[in-house]
Amino acid sequence: MILRLSYSLLLYLALPLIFCRQLWRSRQDSGHRQRWLERLGFVKRLDASADTRIIHFHLVSVGETLAALPLLNRWMAQHPDDHLHVTCMTLTGSREIQKRLGDRVSHSYLPYDLPDAMSRFYQRIPAAITVIMETELWPNLLHQAKRHHTRTLVMNARLSERSFNRYNRWPAATSQLLMPLDQICCQTQATLERFQALGAAPDKLALTGNLKFDMDISAQILARGDELRQQLGSQRPVWIAGSTHEGEDAILLQAHRTILQQYPDALLILVPRHPERFDQVASMIEDHELTFERRSRGPVSSNSQVLLGDTMGELLVMYRAADIAFVGGSLIARGGHNPLEPVALERPVLSGKAVFNFTEVYQMLEQADAMRWANDASAISHSIAQLIDQPDIKLAMTSAASQVLQRHQGACLRTISAIDAML
C-alpha cells in the first residue's frame, strides 16, 4: 500500500508536466487538446443491468487495436447482449477504435493512473471484467478494479527478458502489482515462466498464444492496397519502411539512395510511427536530395523517389502496395514492431536486430527462413536488391512466413474461452 501511495503521489506531482506535454503535442494535432476530462475519469456513465454485462477492453494504441479486432468482433457475435467499452491511451489509437468499431462499442481514453480518476472511471463504467491487452499493468487501475468488484484479465500477455529484469529489480512492488490480477493469458511459454518467476500464482497463468497471428485482413484493405499500387506504378520496384522512429529514417533514406543507383525508378514508402514527426521526416527527405510526395496530398507521380506516408490508419494499405517490407523500430533500441502485419499481406520482411518486444515471433520467422536481418544502410540496400533481382527468393520467404502464421493461429478462440470462464 505504501508503494502504491508513493507512486500515486509522484504521479500527481507530474500531472502538470503531463498536461503541458499534451498541450505541446496539440501544436501538431489539435486532437491532443480534446477530451481531457476523460483522462481524469470523467467518462460517459454506463448502466449495467441483469440482461446487459459491461465488458471493458483496454487497448493501448493502433497496433493493439488491430490485433484485438478479430477477438472483439467474434465476442460481439457470440455475446450480442454484452456492451463493450473500449479504452486506449493515444490519439491515434482512439481514432482507430472509432474508425474500426464505430457505434458498436462505447469508447473513451483510459484515465491517467490516479486513484481518484480510476475510482471515478469504475463508478461510471461498472464493468464485469477489465481485459487488458499485453502489458498495460497500472497499479491504481488494478486496485480500483478490485475495489469495484471488476475482475481483471491480461490477454496476449508478453514479458520480454528485458522487462522481466526490470520488474525483478523491485520484487515487492512487482508482487503487489500482480496480486490483484485474476488471470494472465500468455503469448508464449517463456512469458508464462517469467510471470511465474515474478510471483504470479500458477493457477492464474494460461498459455493461449499470440493474438497477432489471428490478424484479420479485410477485403477493403486488400482492394485499397491494390488500388494504391496501380497509382504508384505496377512495374516499378516499391519497398516500404513502416513505423519508423527517430534515428532510423536517415539510415533508410541512405539505403534508398544506394538502391536508386541500380534501380532508378524504385520507390520507398516511408511511414513514420508518430504523426508529430511527419514534417521532420519531410525535411530529412529533402536534405537527402530525394524527390518526394505526401500521401495526404493525393496521387504519386512516376518520378517521385519517396512517398511519405503521412496519413493515419493506412499502414496495412501501404504494406499491401509494396513489394518488400522493412519493419521499423528495429534499428534503434525501441524493440521493433509487429512483423506479422506484412506477413499477413504476403510481403517479405526485413528488420534490424533490436526486436526485443517481438523476440519469439522473429525467432519463428528466422527459423523458417521467412525473414532477413538488415541492421544498416548497406545491408538493407543489399537485401532489397537481392529480392528485386531474385523473385524466387521473395516467393519462398512469403510462403514460409505464411506457413508460420497459419501454424500459430488459434489464440483468439482460446482467449475468448478464458474470458468466458471468468464471467
Number of strands: 14
* Percentage of residues in strands: 5-15%
Number of helical segments?
17
The level-1 CATH class of the largest domain: Alpha Beta
In CATH terms, the superfamily of the largest domain is 3-Deoxy-D-manno-octulosonic-acid transferase, N-terminal domain
The stretches of 5 or more residues where confidence is low (pLDDT under 50) are: none
Number of domains: 2
Query: Largest sheet, order of strands side by side?
Result: 3-2-1-4-5-6-7
**Average pLDDT, all residues:** 95
CATH architecture of the largest domain: 3-Layer(aba) Sandwich
C-alpha termini separation: 28 Å
Overall geometric form:
globular
Structural class: alpha/beta
Q: Major beta sheet, specifics?
A: 7 strands, parallel
Computed CA radius of gyration, to the nearest angstrom: 22 Å
Classify the helix fraction into a percent range. 40-55%
Say what the CATH topology of the largest domain is: Rossmann fold
Organism: Neiella litorisoli
Subcellular location: Cell inner membrane; Cell membrane
Family: Belongs to the glycosyltransferase group 1 family. Glycosyltransferase 30 subfamily.
InterPro entries: Glycos_transf_N, Glycos_transf_N_sf, Kdotransferase
